Amino acid sequence: MMNVGLIGKTAILEPHALKLKENSSVNIIGKASVGSHTQLNSFHYSVPEFNRVELVERADVILMDNSTPHAFRLMQEMIKKSKHIFCTEHPALTIDECTELNKLANESGSVVQITNPYYFTPAIQWMNENVHTPAFIEYSNFEPGGTASESLYTMLLMLLGITGISPKKIGAVAFPGFNSSRFSNVRLEFNDASVISLNYGKLESLNDFKIRIYADNQFVAFNFTQGTFLCNNKAVNLDQYSRTNEFDHFVQTIEKKVKKNSCLEDYLIAMHVVQKINRKLMQFSSL
What we know:
Blueprint: E1 2-8, H1 10-20, E2 26-33, H2 37-40, H3 52-58, E3 61-64, H4 71-80, E4 84-87, H5 95-108, E5 112-114, H6 122-130, E6 135-142, H7 148-158, E7 169-176, E8 182-189, E9 195-202, E10 208-215, E11 218-223, E12 228-231, E13 234-235, H8 246-254, H9 264-281
Parallel strand pairs: 1-2, 1-3, 3-4, 4-5, 6-9
Antiparallel strand pairs: 6-10, 7-8, 8-9, 10-11, 11-12, 12-13
Helix pairs in contact: 4-5, 5-9, 7-9
């Protein structure tokens, strides 16, 4: 039985806590909440409140969001104590901080997993197993809310199992639009000749999330917004691919039953890629 502690805003962590209760190998021992008194009372699940120091000492595993002050120092102390961490949001770390945490995690044996919800969906699982490479992959995601960096991390981590996230060449362009809309395109070229074209941003009245893949004798068209999934113009049967719970995978990683996925090392690689992309996009910031 793993003892789990929650650190962060209750509104963000409550859905995760409710899912955790479905895992028989997990025991939620308490939370260290961040937020106002009103926000704390919004957590209608009976979880005792602790200060962070005591909670970290008692827990084997910590779920945390980005609301905790001095997150790097907190993660650093937890990893030194061989605690395992599941980040429900992309950690607000610098590259140097992430590099140090990754080194510490490798030394201490701590498992640190970063949220990667799309990766565990049936559609992406099918793509990981069936898409031929090299391939040309066109990814379009125009959804309300979120920031450009969040969109990039979500897209890059989702594609871990198909091409990886270590391109040999990066190109990027961005254009402003009307009513504060913005379109960005990133082109990633890989050593196996695969190419990924990422289209994202905010366009008025557009909510669109789709992936199109062109490969040897293979054309894949997945429209997540409309819920249509085609390969060579035929419907793809996703029934054999159940949606994997991220935290269940995290627990299995700790138990050494599966390989690490979306770990700090993956996130660090993604951070370097995002940094290079943002440098490319800076030349369009005045447009």
